[in-house]
Design a protein that fits this description.
Length: 334
């Protein structure tokens, strides 16, 4: 099914927690009080909300994980405050996977409470390797868009249309180890790639921005054959020893280069902000909202301003004194 969430009812998810909402709202504008710009989008990833029951089940005795739970919860609040306080608010939010850390009803209910803070924003979600597809569906079923039909069995894929571009949301989560917190590298699979190609062909009138959780990770042989990448925004620090990207990256790239209206591919998973360009396609790795693997890398999210012939991306670090706060990149479609 597509994972589009209607603006959630604060009454339902924040019942009995008026103090929570009051504390959250202190010093922020209401989303209703600012204007939404239909060309402005908020791109978030890797919020990794972590529940007490997940810690007890998977990380008992792990002090670092105990300490992480309140940090990721507060980081979500900080991102939400920033979003709501923007003078011109983004029209919609895209959350690119690893919404929670383990899965399970408790964690998706935590996520629902956080989404409730975002009031009127429509939210679209992809699945990461820390998510659990069925637990997500079961928690949010009532809040998904009525009448959405299943586009692809057993995957949360969708098409989100806008004036200047269509967002195509893919699902790279494999459920080979459903009860493990980290379910491993991603894969799209042949059925999804076929669906994706048909969607690209039927939406060729506008630029396409493709979103999936796992990073593109081509084989060594493919990289040797594929030519150089042009770095647009460097990561704050080189990443060492990271494996577990998209297993069928070669097949995805082979498809992407045949579709000239694909202008950008947006991924999460790496928890680091960087952009490179390869064969006229921009590859955007989103920063993490929850936590980073490297202290030099800021936590945050991106504001995307779509234009006729490109997009402006602006990094919103949660610590607004960070040197990379409001780093901008102008992407030109060619
Ligand atoms: Fe993650």
């Amino acid at each position: 099914m597509p994972a589009h969430l209607l603006p959630l009812s604060r009454r339902q998810f924040l019942a009995g927690s008026a103090a929570t909402l009051a504390a959250f709202r202190a010093g922020t504008l209401s989303a209703d009080e600012s204007q939404a710009d239909p060309d402005s989008w908020a791109l978030l990833s890797d919020t990794h909300l972590l529940s007490a029951s997940s810690i007890a089940r998977h990380y008992a005795g792990n002090k670092a994980m105990h300490q992480r739970a309140p940090v990721v919860a507060e980081n979500f609040n900080r991102a939400a405050r920033q979003l709501i306080a923007l003078p011109t608010r983004p029209a919609e939010i895209l959350l690119n996977g690893d919404c929670v850390h383990v899965g399970g009803k408790d964690e998706y209910e935590l996520l629902a409470h956080k989404f409730a803070l975002l009031e009127t924003f429509p939210i679209h979600v992809t699945m990461g390797n820390h998510d659990h597809r069925d637990d997500f569906t079961n928690t949010f079923q009532e809040h998904t868009r009525r009448g959405d039909r299943v586009l692809l069995e057993n995957r949360h894929v969708s098409v989100v249309k806008s004036r200047h571009a269509n967002f195509i949301l893919l699902d790279s989560l494999t459920m080979q180890n459903p009860n493990r917190p980290v379910k491993g590298p991603g894969i799209l699979g042949r059925d999804q790639l076929e669906w994706f190609e048909s969607v690209l062909d039927s939406h060729s009138d506008k630029p396409a921005v493709v979103m999936l959780h796992h990073n593109i990770d081509p084989s060594d042989d493919y990289q040797k054959r594929s030519g150089a990448r042009e770095v647009v925004v460097e990561s704050a620090s080189p990443f060492k020893g990271f494996t577990g990207g998209l297993e069928d990256s070669d097949q995805l790239l082979d498809l992407l280069v045949t579709k000239s209206h694909v202008k950008a591919v947006v991924t999460g998973h790496m928890h680091q902000f960087r952009i490179f360009k390869w064969r006229k396609i921009h590859f955007v790795s989103l920063p993490s909202v929850g936590y980073t693997f490297d202290a030099k890398e800021p936590v945050g999210w991106l504001r995307m301003q779509l234009q006729d012939d490109g997009a402006m991306l602006e990094l919103q670090t949660l610590d607004t004194t960070h040197t990379r706060h409001r780093t901008r990149a102008d992407l030109r479609w060619s």
